[in-house]
Amino acid sequence: MPMSRRQFALSTAAAVTVYGNGVMAQQVKRPNVVFVLSDDWRWDAMSAAGSKIIKTPNIDRIANEGARFANAFCTTSLCSPSRASFLSGMYPHIHGVVDNFTDYPIDKYPSYHASLSQAGYATAYIGKWHMGEGDDSHRKPFDYWASHKGQGQYYDTEFHVSERVAPGSTETKGERKVIKGYYTHVVTQLALDWIKRAPRPFSLQLGHKAPHGKWYPEPKYEHAFDNLDIKKPPLDQLVNEGTPDWVKKRVATWHGIDGPLYEMKDFADFIRGYYGTILSVDDSIGALYAALQEMGELDNTIFVVAGDNGFLLGEHASIDKRTAWEESIRIPMLVRYPPAIAKGTVVDELVMNMDLAPTVLDLTNVKPPAAAPKMQGLSTKPLFGKTKPKDWRKSVYYQYNFEKEFPYTPNVRAVRTDEWIYMHYPNGGSAPDTEKAELYNIKTDSREMNNLIDKPQYAAKQRELKAELLRLQTVTGALPDKMPQSPALSFAMPDAAIR
User: In the beta sheet, which residues pair with residue 204?
Assistant: First the structure.
């Protein structure tokens, strides 16, 4: 007869664990997991990363009491592919979610939540799911589900709120209803209500809409950045002779700095609105922290905060994401868990969104299902210790596939090391590249303004990075590279929804 969650939790009590930082902890119960994922939140939009624009005390507290990954990257800078990589520990060319319309293949690639569920965890997903966006049905393996179709709205979103009728049952019961209020507060309250009544241990994933555009800061933050002096930089400061032609041509499109700016039109309002919505996310994290503390579960909870991808705020004469520039592919990622992580840890090694799943399973001592494919991500637990692993990855592979709905960005394939990034724009099939590739030294040119691709003195470095890109594609199973054809980008503005 299978054990109940409570029996399972009791059976795993009182295990002694020695962590890489020398901390010996008496584990009286399995840790809970709380994962907060924000949308389009760039890596430097928090004061913990040195922002001079925004103050985020609650986010900073997670970093100060745990670890901040200073060099975290997404596999694809697009909502659905990135979310699937967080869940699966896989690259998009493996899990198959390569666009914003494909649902997560839970039966083929069980998420880390599925592993935790099998190990006796109560599980919940609340907020923006955005995989198979026209479908808000209750997804496996979650016991509790509160999500919606598509992007949701900043105010008064219709949620499908559903719950399993009994632990382990496949039968669910729920309703679709418009929940009045500001999105960030609504999903936070749903999360607080659930964790306070959930069996222990529990795993919660909370998906915020913010700071996805078009932005609507809540009333108390509508004017938070009114005194911020914002001027749109002139075009000649953003592009130069090393800039690929496709970047110059899309300046006036949905993804260019002279376009409609997510319908906000004014550049200063565009910037202020973006940061204004993040302040509410910071409040949400503070509320979750306080609740866990009051419940006596804070230090027994793996508390993760991250963004699904970055966001361009005018750099390279661009907005949005999708590209391989730093503002697009670099993400915020923080984790607090005192038994394993010393306060104020800063991890400088290259980590990826797909590292979350194996990290959570490692810290909870839960193994993935035996029949599940091996995760491509790496557990970051060894990086929390004073002695760093010598064989940690030295490069990351980035991929983006051209979307006909938003034909302003070509296919992108890139490799990022701790010092360099090389990116090129294949057309797909056997067609040769027609756009200028890009090569930057991140250490000396953090804004990626000096494209070295045509400089003879960097020819050897270009060959080296091309070889590394090919190696990564080979070892990750990305070859043959199945990408859409994108030889002819369109720079008109179709009547398309913002994604």
Answer: 34, 124
Strand 24-27 to strand 330-331: parallel, antiparallel, or no bridges (unpaired)?
A: unpaired
Helices 267-295 and 57-64: angle between axes, nearest 10 degrees: 50
Q: Is the pLDDT of residue 204 over 50?
A: yes
Distance CA 403, CA 109 (A): 24
Q: List the CATH code of the domain at 30-384.
A: 3.40.720.10
3-state secondary structure at position 465: helix
Beta bridge partners of 302: 33
> CA 8, CA 117: separation in Å to the nearest integer?
11
The chain-wide mean pLDDT, for the chain, equals 92
Kindly give the interhelix angle for 183-197 and 267-295, rounded to the nearest 10 degrees. 10
224 three-state secondary structure = coil
DSSP run (H or E) holding 180: strand 172-182
Q: Are 61 and 339 in contact (CB under 8 A)?
A: no
Q: Where are the domains of the chain?
A: 30-384, 395-475
The residues near 258 (Cβ < 8 Å, ≥ 6 apart) are 235, 251, 252, 317
Q: Sort 481 into a burial class: Cβ within 10 Å, 0-12 / 13-18 / 19+.
A: middle
Task: Give the CA count within 13 Å in the CB-facing half-sphere of 138.
Answer: 20
The amino acid sitting at 349 is: E
- Taking the model in full, what pTM does it have? 0.93
399-454 tens-digit pLDDT: 999 998 889 999 999 999 999 999 999 998 777 788 999 999 999 999 999 999 99
Check if the beta carbon of residue 116 is closer than 8 Å to that of residue 123: yes
Greater pLDDT, 387 or 160: 160
For residue range 75-126, what is the model confidence (pLDDT) as tens digits? 999 999 999 999 999 999 999 999 999 999 999 999 999 999 999 999 999 9
346 CB neighbour count, 10 Å cutoff: 11
CATH annotation of 395-475:
3.30.1120.10
Question: Which phi and psi (to 5°) does residue 147 adopt?
Answer: -140, -165
CA distance 367 to 116: 8
Identify the H or E element spanning 413: strand 412-417
pLDDT given at position 21: 40
* The two structure tokens encoding residue 423: 């990116």
pLDDT in tens, 125-177: 999 999 998 999 999 999 999 999 999 999 999 999 999 998 878 899 999 99
Cα separation of 222 and 187, whole Å? 20
The full length of the chain comes to: 499
Residue corresponding to tokens 């030295």: 394
* Nearest Cα residue to 373 out of 479, 258, 477, 259: 477
Q: Which amino acid is at 425?
A: Y
